[in-house]
């Protein structure tokens, strides 16, 4: 597999940075080389946050921000209004989005596939709080096939334990099964 580059957009406290790390753990669990790191502006709850993850079959030496992602994962749908959100998205790009309904239109000409899931509702049902990151990681696995649901579930044990681990596993599994995939062709 060629290097896959993902950019995560969320707000402080929603788990975007942890989602980037969870994707790295899932890819590593599937035997890939990984790199993941956040970029903080204002370190306050509710402020926009960006995080990055790369994974590949070969060692990754690149340590810079990701300017041309294969995939955008957007935790907070209000961030769709940010200017430049889709800047650099590669042709054939993927969007994973927390939204309770399908997209009405294609938000970028480079977007080929979008995995839409009501991750907020699932997180509230399963975790009891609006932290939709694990659900979105499950949706990413289903939408792209870049790693397995089993790898996602195994990787969650690095971040949670006990009842919280089980709740997050249920959220990721529901994200995997409940994601609606929209496709466009150029």
Q: What keywords describe this structure?
A:
186 residues; alpha/beta; Pyruvate-ferredoxin Oxidoreductase, domain 3; seven-stranded mixed β-sheet; 31% helix
Q: Care to describe what's here?
A:
This protein has 5 helices and 7 strands; from the N terminus they run βαβββββααααβ. It has 186 residues and is an alpha/beta fold. The protein has a single domain (4-98, 106-183), classed as Pyruvate-ferredoxin oxidoreductase, PFOR, domain III (Pyruvate-ferredoxin Oxidoreductase, domain 3, 3-Layer(aba) Sandwich). Helix 1 crosses helix 3 and helix 1 (16-29) crosses helix 4 (149-155). The model has no long low-confidence stretch (mean pLDDT 93).
Set down the secondary structure blueprint:
Layout: E1 4-11, H1 16-29, E2 33-39, E3 48-56, E4 71-74, E5 93-98, E6 111-117, H2 119-126, H3 133-144, H4 149-155, H5 162-178, E7 180-183
Parallel strand pairs: 1-4, 4-5, 5-6
Antiparallel strand pairs: 1-3, 2-3, 6-7
Helix pairs in contact: 1-3, 1-4, 2-5, 3-5
């Amino acid at each position: 597999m060629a290097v896959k580059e993902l950019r995560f957009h969320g707000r402080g406290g929603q788990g975007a940075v942890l989602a980037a790390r969870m994707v790295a753990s899932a890819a590593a669990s599937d035997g890939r080389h990984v790199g993941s790191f956040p970029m903080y502006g204002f370190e306050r709850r509710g402020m926009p946050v960006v995080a990055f993850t790369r994974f590949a079959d070969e060692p990754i030496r690149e340590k810079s921000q990701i300017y041309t992602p294969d995939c955008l994962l957007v935790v907070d749908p209000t961030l769709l209004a940010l200017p430049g959100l889709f800047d650099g998205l590669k042709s054939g790009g993927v969007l994973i989005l927390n939204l309770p309904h399908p997209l009405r239109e294609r938000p970028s000409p480079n977007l080929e596939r979008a995995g839409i899931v009501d991750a907020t509702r699932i997180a509230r049902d399963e975790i009891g709080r609006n932290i939709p990151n694990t659900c979105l990681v499950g949706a990413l696995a289903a939408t792209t096939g870049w790693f397995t649901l089993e790898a996602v579930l195994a990787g969650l044990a690095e971040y949670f334990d006990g009842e919280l681990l089980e709740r997050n596993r249920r959220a990721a599994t529901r994200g995997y099964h409940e994601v609606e995939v929209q496709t466009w062709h150029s």
